[in-house]
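Input set for joint prediction.
Command: fold jointly, output tokens.
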Amino acid sequence: MMENTSNFIKTIMKQELENGVVDHILTRFPPEPNAYLHIGHARAIITNFELAKSFGGKTNLRFDDTNPVKEDVEFVEAIKEDLAWLGYTPEIVVYGSSYFEETYEKAILLIKKGLAFVCDLSQEEVSAYRGDTNNPGKNSPYRDRSIEENLKLFEEMKNGVYPNGSKTLRAKIDMSSPNINMRDPVIYRIIHINHHQTGDKWCIYPMYDFAHPLQDSFEGITHSLCSLEYEDHRPLYDWVINNCDVKHKPRQIEFGRLGITNMIMSKRYLKQLVDEGYVKGYDDPRMPTLTGLRRRGFTPNAIKNFILSTGLSKINSTIDYEMLEHFLRDDLKMKSARPMAVIDPLKVVITNYPEGKVEELPVLNNMENPELGSHTITFSRNLYIEKEDFLEEKPNKHWKRLSKGLEVRLMNAYFIKCEEVIYDEKGEIVELHCTYDEKTKNGTGFNERKPNGTIHFVDAATAQSATFNLFEPLILDSVVSSENFKERLNPNSWVTKEGFVEAWLKDTKPMDKYQFVRNGYFTTDYESKGNKLIFNRIVNLKSSFTK
RNA sequence: AGGCCUUUAGCCAAGCGGUAAGGCAACGGACUUUGACUCCGUCAUUUCACUAGUUCGAAUCUAGUAAGGCCUACCA
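tokens >
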């Protein structure tokens, strides 16, 4: 694990530990199971787990399922899978709904203390009574019901006597508070619906603002981390903690959201992309979802290092996508083999190489990391090189690849010199006729002359055909908002090419990762099979070529 | 009758009264069987949004100003 720099939350935890405010750290990751996790959630996960871990603490996974109309088990399974993929094991896995009984009892306690009341106002009326940012609210006419009446009414709410929306339980705080969250917030509402965990047991459900602090407290969470938009909710969080006679008093701390250029993560936008067919699903390799990034070939380690190195603050940051790319390459560099693949093939005939002859040449899987072993490639008369490695017109001195009359090194093999360009009747290049020099064979240490660069190739005699999926951002600009996203969609976000890979890759398995020399990092797609190899480009190699 | 929060380089970010870390990007150069990697160098002193002030000393403390964000679901 890499060194992570200091941040304000770490500083707070350290101080509280030193001052004896807490004697351990327990955090929690509380997703609502109503959507697939994306890289923004990864930051919350990594932050919670790594922060706790740095103090020898633990982290719980708690499904925040207090609103059954929006949630589904499909997502709880997906979330568990994503968390495991990131490499984290929660101390405990619970549901907010596991605490419905205790939460209900705390509501009764509040009623008994005269701090909560059953309100008959409709949703519209509640809204009208609430006032706005410039005007104080008005007390509900039901605010002064007796404790006995409130107790009776609340129990009837629980017993299903009343229809949806007819009554709520509200905390009695301050209708004139400048913080609108404190204007007698609703803490329980009636919803007659089947809950994915508790079935039909309950028809009243606590609101997030009431349930969350209690759940944190029940679990003994020391620091409840959430995003910036909950800052205004903290006074309510503290009010609940301070008025519900709880044993443990957790502290809510808010931090900024993660934004990445050319990546939009809003739930609504992601859903639209899928529902309207702009992508192939939530696991489309272009999606910022964890399932999509996984398919794309992103590694948990790269994501983790990226998140930790970008730090944490109270700013809603927008980090350059290049930063993520850097950590992807950084993680993959020493771990993946570097075979050759030709994505856009151009046929080359070595005219002075005997027909029918096939040579086997040894190559290191990763020249920088011999521990990754070695394999052999073949060399024979017919080869494929990358179309863009051949320049038809006369090149200038900066051209470090092949052209007519120039000699280049075929990586791991021989020098070849282009003697002739063969065209078809339409004037398109069909193939190149080249000669090779036997003395320049790889490993001989030949240094009598310098080639005009080194290019990669695949032997046509043994090549495996393969499909390459090349990706670009879904969104053309860096604006984080999803406004007018349809006009901003990148038409080239997914380009497919048909080419070849070395024979060595014929048994590649989904999720295997490679650096295809000079072409970037790739992973084998889920749908790749023996005779139909499919590779997804994870990230390109850096290049200073265009300058 | 509005409240809360934020502001350090192109993008992140450390810094917590003692004289501006680090990463990404960018730009030079060396090396190179990947135009990759690696290595070396450059990149905030009209410097920490701005203006006053406190102080021997301020990005750090105080006051004010400006810009941006969040808040008026029986969502989370």
